C-alpha cells in the first residue's frame, strides 16, 4: 500500500504566434471559392436579397416623397 509513481503522458498542442502558415488555407483561391458558392446558391441568395432590397427601396422612395410633400 505504498505510494507508486504513475507516469502520466500528456501532450499539449499550441500554436506559435510567429507561425503564419496556419490560416493560409482559408485565403488560398478565395475568389474561386466565392464564385463557386455564389454560383451554387444564387437562387437562394436572390430569394433572400430581393425582398430586402425591394423593401429598402420602397422605404427610401416613401421618405423622399414625404419630405417633398411637406415643402408646400
TrEMBL record:
GO biological process: mitochondrial electron transport, ubiquinol to cytochrome c
Main location group: mitochondrion
Pfam families: Cyt_b-c1_8
Stored InterPro entries: Cyt_b-c1_8-plants (IPR020101), Cyt_bc1_su8_sf (IPR036642)
Membrane topology: Single-pass membrane protein
Swiss-Prot/TrEMBL keywords: Electron transport, Membrane, Mitochondrion, Mitochondrion inner membrane, Respiratory chain, Transmembrane, Transmembrane helix, Transport
Domain of life, per lineage: Eukaryota
Compartment(s) of residence: Mitochondrion inner membrane
Keyword Magnesium among record annotations: no
Any one annotated GO CC term: respiratory chain complex III
Keyword Thylakoid: no
Family: Belongs to the UQCRQ/QCR8 family.
PANTHER family: CYTOCHROME B-C1 COMPLEX SUBUNIT 8, CYTOCHROME B-C1 COMPLEX SUBUNIT 8-1, MITOCHONDRIAL
Protein name: Cytochrome b-c1 complex subunit 8
Species whose genome carries this gene: Sphenostylis stenocarpa
Amino acid at each position: 500500500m505504498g505510494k507508486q509513481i504513475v507516469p502520466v503522458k500528456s501532450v499539449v498542442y499550441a500554436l506559435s504566434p510567429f507561425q503564419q502558415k496556419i490560416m493560409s488555407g482559408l485565403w488560398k483561391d478565395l475568389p474561386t471559392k466565392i464564385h463557386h458558392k455564389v454560383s451554387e446558391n444564387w437562387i437562394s441568395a436572390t430569394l433572400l436579397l430581393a425582398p430586402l432590397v425591394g423593401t429598402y427601396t420602397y422605404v427610401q422612395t416613401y421618405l423622399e416623397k414625404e419630405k417633398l410633400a411637406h415643402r408646400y
